Amino acid sequence: MANIKDVALRAGVSPSTVSRTLSGKIPVDKETKEKVMQAVQELNYQPNVFAQGLKDGKSKTIGLIIPNVRNLVFPAAIRGITDVAKHYGYTMVLCNTDEDQETESFYVQSLRQRLVDGLIFSTATEKSEHILKLREEGFPIVLMIRHLGGTIDAVIADNFSGGYEGAKFLLSRGFRRIALINGTMGLDLYRQRYAGYKEALLEAGVVLDDRLVVHETGDWETAYEATGRLLTSGAKPDAIFATSDTKALGVMKALKERKLKVPEDISVLGYDDIETASLMDPPLSTVAQPFYEIGQRAAERLMKLIRSKRRPKPVLEKLPVRLVVRDSVGGESYIGGEGSS
Amino acid sequence: MANIKDVALRAGVSPSTVSRTLSGKIPVDKETKEKVMQAVQELNYQPNVFAQGLKDGKSKTIGLIIPNVRNLVFPAAIRGITDVAKHYGYTMVLCNTDEDQETESFYVQSLRQRLVDGLIFSTATEKSEHILKLREEGFPIVLMIRHLGGTIDAVIADNFSGGYEGAKFLLSRGFRRIALINGTMGLDLYRQRYAGYKEALLEAGVVLDDRLVVHETGDWETAYEATGRLLTSGAKPDAIFATSDTKALGVMKALKERKLKVPEDISVLGYDDIETASLMDPPLSTVAQPFYEIGQRAAERLMKLIRSKRRPKPVLEKLPVRLVVRDSVGGESYIGGEGSS
DNA sequence: CTGAAAGCGCTTACAG
DNA sequence: CTGAAAGCGCTTACAG
Predict the structure, then answer these.
(1) Which nucleotide does the CA of A48 lie closest to, via C1'?
(2) Which residues partner with B149 through β-bridges?
């Protein structure tokens, strides 16, 4: 590949002039510019980024650290990030950690070595000390979906509202024995949803029945099993609020196997609004999270951090969730039902 | 951040020795090595990749070009790629093109500039001349899922078998009016599935009815509409074979809205085996594609190309598909049904 | 086994 | 507005 000397030679100028012409920041004679541009064209010259990076230390690449791309909530967020990154001339490196600290450290090491200009994490937990350390070093980082208090920039959904609005919706449909199939209490996002759920119950004067609440479920299998236990426990839920659509699918599977019809016999509310939620049978009502926007905002924030000389005060951005009403929740205002099974 | 000179100073040796110690390829006195390693530890030294890259031209990064991460078939493939890449100390950059040539060219330019060592494409079409050009230049590239004849390395699924086995399965269940909701004939993978479907029909002595075949559908909406037209056309299908699970979801939605029960009234067979296929109602029978393995193999191949000095002969690797029988296909050997609706 | 020196391809003060 | 030169941080033939 041609280098800057080749271009300079062909254009009859010095390498400095080629560099200046290309950077566009420093005035260059119009005629000179034309000669240079032509030589660039002819040789299909592309500056060597290693050489550039060696000077200015920028790679125009950011890194994304997530547990697993196969988790259906991430693709939309990824799209948000890459779209914004592209707009700034940036490119994104993707890393899966499977929630493993060692894998994560490996990636952080190798990415810093590869000099990404900044990092977005979706893997923050209470033991994420390496993230805190990066922050201390002044390295640009933004958290996404999960956060770590107010000390690090983060873009998350309003999880309290999600739990609150979801439960309130079910209450408005006349349900009183609302089960909650929740995730791990080790993550603030699930604690918040739980808190929102409790708040809604409290406001409605419904006494919380601990037997209706299951924490620590993960994928659809665990939700499937939890539902089985819930049904045989005598807790008698009239609606089930799962804190992910994937879990809601597990719930529905368990219900169907027990010949319980959704929503005639029992209602189900999901969380996330994954791509296929509207195609479920019945179409799943759910608390929609703005994953694409979360990705966008996180990337925008990271771009700001990368560009700013001084370290701006961290911002915790909380995006609103949105209730999406489909057919999986019945109750008082339920109209359909004739022959839909 | 500390550089090699700092380390050399602290260890009381020359930068050359530090470099040699770290590379491990050249013998270094044991004692010297220890001093160096300690200095490296103390200063938390990490070699600057830009400087390294400037010398050897390797970035230890590969690029992946796909239409859209949000398409449910890609996450698994991405995981396959990143897992293999990680094993080789490589990192992966992700780019979405939305099937747009300009976006793709932009990314290819910017990635080459950022000196990725190689590229995996899932976007090849007949007009992908830039891909051919890269190949001519000797730049390491591998195609995935789609291919471009035998001139470029590619890892794909056996699409002919997929169409053939799927149709044969439906025929074995006694169906004779099997509709095919296919993708664009501009892509070889859909031409192959169609060819397989035709072959199975031919073998079974079933005359192909063109009214039962719809090409050019894409997402679930188009499949949904195509199904509507199919049902009102008088073509009277007894089974519908969709060439993606997403399309199959659209098909099922259309059937349910017309009060047709799956599989009692009509059977549905999908293609891909996406994550949620088993959670559909009814669980979707489908032709499973080994996306994870496709990603793995593509990455392995790319690593080979990057490492080899000479350009090896291109290999077209075709991975087998697998029929996954669930409840959405009824017919002769169908046993369930009591109360499953 | 080790050091001094050259060079990878840029950018940017410095001088004019 | 333009050129010659220094320097970014490594690696690696060259010499010893």
Answers:
(1) C9
(2) none
Q: pLDDT tens digit string along A232-253?
A: 988 899 999 999 999 999 999 9
Structure tokens at B70: 């949000």
pLDDT in tens, A213-227: 999 888 899 999 999
Q: What is the CATH number of domain A4-47?
A: 1.10.260.40
Domain B159-289 belongs to what architecture? 3-Layer(aba) Sandwich (3.40)
| Nucleotide nearest A33, from its CA to each C1' | D1
CA-nearest of B74, B246, B40 to A276 is: B246
User: B227 in the Ramachandran plot: left (φ > 0), alpha (ψ -120 to 50) or beta?
Assistant: alpha
Q: How confident is the model at residue A304 (pLDDT cuts 50, 70, 90)?
A: very high
User: Which two three-digit tokens encode residue A74?
Assistant: 């991430």
Q: What secondary structure does DSSP assign to B113-157, as a single string?
A: HTT-SEEEES---TT-HHHHHHHHTT--EEEESS-BTBSS-EEEE
- Please name the residue whose C-alpha is nearest to the C1' of nucleotide C11: A55
Phi, psi of B112, rounded to the nearest 5 degrees: -65, -40
- Closest residue to D10 (CA to C1') is B51
H/E stretch holding A214 reads strand A213-214
CB atoms near residue A335 (< 10 Å): 6
Domain B58-157+291-319 has CATH 3.20.20.120: no
Q: Choose, out of B114, B272, B278, the residue to mutate when testing the contact with A (most A CBs < 10 Å).
A: B114
A290-317 b/e with 16+ CB inside 10 Å = b? Answer: bbbbbbbbbbbbbbebbeeeeeeebeeb
- CA–CA gap between residue B108 and residue B129 (Å, rounded): 12
Is the whole-model pTM more than 0.70? yes
Q: Any idea how long chain B is?
A: 341
Domain ranges in chain A are: 4-47, 56-157+291-320, 159-289
For domain A56-157+291-320, give the fold.
Rossmann fold (3.40.50)
